[in-house]
Amino acid sequence: MDTEGNVNLSPFSFFNAYASNPPIVAIGPAIAAKTGRAKHTWLNILATQECTISTVSHSMVHAMNLTAAEYPNEVDEYLKAGFTKRNSVKVTPPSVAESPYSMECRLMENIELRRDIGGNGNLMLLEVVAFHVADSVLRNGKVDPRALDLVGRMGGAYYTRTQDIFEATQPPHIPIGIDGLPEHIRTSPILTGNELAQLAYLPTLPMPSGSFPQFDESIRADSLDVELAMGRPDGALYVWLQNGDRSDHATLHRIAQLYIAQGKMEEAWQTLLM
């Protein structure tokens, strides 16, 4: 929004968070390289010291694209895109009501990037003074990233969608690290770097367990290749113990790999220690 109350809405390829207390985010509205024209967003924030940031879900993508056109300053992009204005509580500019997650921001600092050599970039540090979160994306009081269904720009006309979400919990202790793994595991031709790293999360090396493995009485398996292909590590280990070459570490590593893929790290370790 400019000083005369004209609302401006435009898409940004990305923003990022840089602090949590107080919450600080940053955007980089550049001066157009081809025309030398300053972005309305940059000029408006400099003039008013305020803005809002609204994240974009997949259902908003094409409406968002409508706001990318270089409309005259007096044109309301909310109307062009069919978005609804949500009144802010601490700043003057509105946010996009259709967005699942929006922030009200005040300008903390504007950094002009290398104007001495003709640079056209700007870095605007913004303090978030209020959040708006849709009830539909909350689970037990926390934001569910899957429910947000956000998109991100990858360059050009390419975007990505946050559907393939996974968890990678940091170890709560000092891990042994990959260099602490036994050599026959660390130099495995089967296990990937990611798999080795998961094994290295432990604080100390485990010891072989005399109670491993324990198989269900109903287990039926007679082909190692079939069990491996079907992703059944219990069956594969059962066949290996019945018929396998005890010096065949490569097969044990393949079985451990299946356990790792299933999140069964204890079983993976015990397999590797056999």
Description:
This protein has 274 residues and is of the alpha+beta class. It has two domains: 120 residues, Electron Transport, Fmn-binding Protein, Chain A (Pnp Oxidase, Chain A, Roll); 95 residues, no CATH class. 27% of the residues lie in helices and 21% in strands. The strands form four sheets. Strands 1-2-7-6-3 form a five-stranded antiparallel sheet, covered by helices on one side. The protein has a two-stranded antiparallel ribbon with strand order 4-5. The chain is elongated, with a radius of gyration of 27 Å. The protein starts with 15 loop residues before the first strand and ends with a helix.
Secondary structure tally: strands: 11
Helix-strand makeup class: alpha+beta
CATH class of the largest domain: Mainly Beta
Give the number of domains: 2
Strand content: 15-25%
Element-by-element helix/strand order:
EEHEHHEEEEEEHEEHHHHHH
- The CATH homologous superfamily of the largest domain corresponds to Electron Transport, Fmn-binding Protein, Chain A
Count of alpha/pi helices? 10
Describe what is shown at a glance.
The protein is an alpha+beta fold and 274 residues long. The protein folds into two domains: 120 residues, Electron Transport, Fmn-binding Protein, Chain A (Pnp Oxidase, Chain A, Roll); 95 residues, no CATH class.
